[in-house]
Structure formats: structure tokens, C-alpha cells
């Protein structure tokens, strides 16, 4: 699909992967909707993009408030009249043992990563169906394919996205609307630092895997390349992606090794 001059909505646009995607989109003269919770950071990104006011909409949203999704979409339609691509990238990570994770934290992660994500896609898809065109791109994770200690709720939220969008994709096909699921491996962002712990506090601790992960501009270039294709799913990362076939073909050995690696962390 051609991205040139298209209307693209990016959530989680204030930092990390989302910010890098916006810079990559500028190569195609896209009109961009920038969304995240932090309006000040969205304004910073807008200024760094050097994009004209008529080609950008700053739209702060909180995915935890999924009941507001239709109102958010209406603001985009008022500004641009249509939505060609939704890059549903906003989310939150979690790191804590199951027995130390409160139900409130579990619900928060699911509200943001699953219910907020899905509510926005459903609201946007109504307009894409009327247009008979559009593409929804969803950032999941390799932890949507297996679970690891300390990441139970995060992994659960990403597993849920696979189940929903694999089904939704088939329903949208008749209306010429497509879905691309994108599974990042370890990407060099602050996702680990900003993870919440079992009591809801911020972890404030980086992960060696993230520090040594793929640079966000490299990820963004690969993602935009996938958006232009007809792919339904893509993994983006480095050697950690080998964990997917490893788990499929040798699950007992896979989990034995993962357990050893996780001890003491």
C-alpha cells in the first residue's frame, strides 16, 4: 500500500518506537495524527518533525479510557476527513511475580494494552469500512507468542491481541481493510524502565536486552516497509526472534532454558 500523502494515526507517538515511526513517515509526506498521554512530548515531536500545522493533529489520548475512543476518532475525521492507516502502538509493560501483582495492576495493563487498543481499532474501522480502504497496524510483542517469569500480565495482554486481530482481519477483508500484526523483539527504548511493578509503581530499571536491542530508527524503517507490503504479520528484531521456532519445535527445552535464565532476575 502506498503511504504517500496518506493520513496516518500513530499512538504512543511521544517516544521510542512511535516517535521513530513518525520520523520515518515524513519521507512519504504523510499527514500525521500524534497521540499519547503526554501533550508536551507530542508537541516536541511535532517540532522535531518540522511538519506544517495543516498536516498534523496533536491528539492526547489515554488508552485506559477506552470509552472515549469514538470521540477521539471524530476529532481526526473533523481535521482530515478520513483515516488511511492506524498504527496502534501505545501500551505499557509490567514486571513482577504473579503473587506480587495486584488485580488493579492486572486490570490496568489489560485496559491499556487490550481494551484501549481494541476500542480504538473498532472505532477507526467504522470509517475505513465506509471508505472501503484502510490498514490497521498493531504492535504486539514476541511475548504474545510465549510467556516468561515476571511478565505474566504483559504477556497475557499481547496474547489477547493476537486472538482478537487474527479474527478481526478475516471479518474486515470483504471491505478492503487489512490488519498487520507487528511483533518486536528487543528494541532500544525505555519500555523496561517505564514498566509497572506489582503494586503499580514504576520500575525505573533498564534491561540489558533493551539496552542492546535494535535501534528505533532501524525498527521504524522495517515496519514501514512491512506496511507497504501485503503481509499479515511480521517479527522485527535480532537473534531473540529465534526463540519463536525454538519454542515451537522444542517446547520442553525452551522453557527449561528460559527458567534458568530468569532465576535471580
UniProtKB/TrEMBL annotation:
GO terms for molecular function: oxidoreductase activity. Gene3D superfamilies: NAD(P)-binding Rossmann-like Domain. It comes from the Bacteria. GO terms for cellular component: membrane. Keywords: Oxidoreductase. The keyword Nucleus does not apply. It holds the Pfam family adh_short. InterPro entries: NAD(P)-bd_dom_sf (IPR036291), Sc_DH/Rdtase_CS (IPR020904), SDR_fam (IPR002347). PANTHER family: DEHYDROGENASE/REDUCTASE SDR FAMILY MEMBER 7B (PTHR44196), DEHYDROGENASE_REDUCTASE SDR FAMILY MEMBER 7B (PTHR44196:SF1). Belongs to the short-chain dehydrogenases/reductases (SDR) family. NCBIfam families: PRK06181.1. This is SDR family oxidoreductase. It comes from Vicingus serpentipes. The lineage of its organism: Bacteria, Pseudomonadati, Bacteroidota, Flavobacteriia, Flavobacteriales.
Amino acid at each position: 500500500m502506498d503511504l504517500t500523502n496518506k493520513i496516518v494515526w500513530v499512538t504512543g507517538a511521544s517516544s521510542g518506537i512511535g516517535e521513530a515511526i513518525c520520523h520515518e513517515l515524513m519521507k512519504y509526506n504523510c499527514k500525521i495524527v500524534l497521540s499519547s498521554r503526554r501533550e508536551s512530548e507530542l508537541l516536541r515531536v511535532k517540532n522535531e518533525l518540522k511538519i506544517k500545522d495543516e498536516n498534523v493533529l496533536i491528539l492526547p489520548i489515554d488508552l485506559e479510557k477506552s470509552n472515549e475512543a469514538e470521540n477521539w476518532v471524530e476529532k481526526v475525521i473533523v481535521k482530515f476527513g478520513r483515516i488511511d492507516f492506524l498504527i496502534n502502538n501505545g501500551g505499557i509493560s509490567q514486571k513482577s511475580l504473579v503473587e506480587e501483582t495486584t488485580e488493579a495492576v492486572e486490570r490496568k495493563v489489560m485496559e491499556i494494552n487490550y481494551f484501549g487498543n481494541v476500542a480504538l481499532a473498532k472505532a477507526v474501522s467504522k470509517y475505513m469500512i465506509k471508505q472501503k480502504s484502510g490498514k490497521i497496524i498493531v504492535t504486539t510483542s514476541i511475548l504474545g507468542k510465549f510467556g516468561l517469569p515476571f511478565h505474566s500480565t504483559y504477556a497475557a495482554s499481547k496474547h489477547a491481541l493476537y486472538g482478537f486481530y487474527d479474527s478481526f482481519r478475516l471479518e474486515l477483508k470483504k471491505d478492503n481493510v487489512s490488519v498487520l500484526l507487528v511483533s518486536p523483539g528487543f528494541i532500544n527504548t525505555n519500555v523496561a524502565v517505564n514498566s509497572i511493578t506489582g503494586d503499580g509503581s514504576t520500575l525505573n530499571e533498564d534491561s540489558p536486552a533493551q539496552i542492546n536491542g535494535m535501534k528505533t530508527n532501524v525498527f521504524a524503517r522495517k515496519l514501514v516497509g512491512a506496511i507497504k507490503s501485503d503481509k499479515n504479520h511480521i517479527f522485527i528484531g535480532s537473534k531473540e526472534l529465534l526463540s519463536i521456532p525454538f519454542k515451537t519445535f522444542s517446547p520442553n527445552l525452551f522453557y527449561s532454558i528460559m527458567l534458568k535464565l530468569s532465576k535471580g532476575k
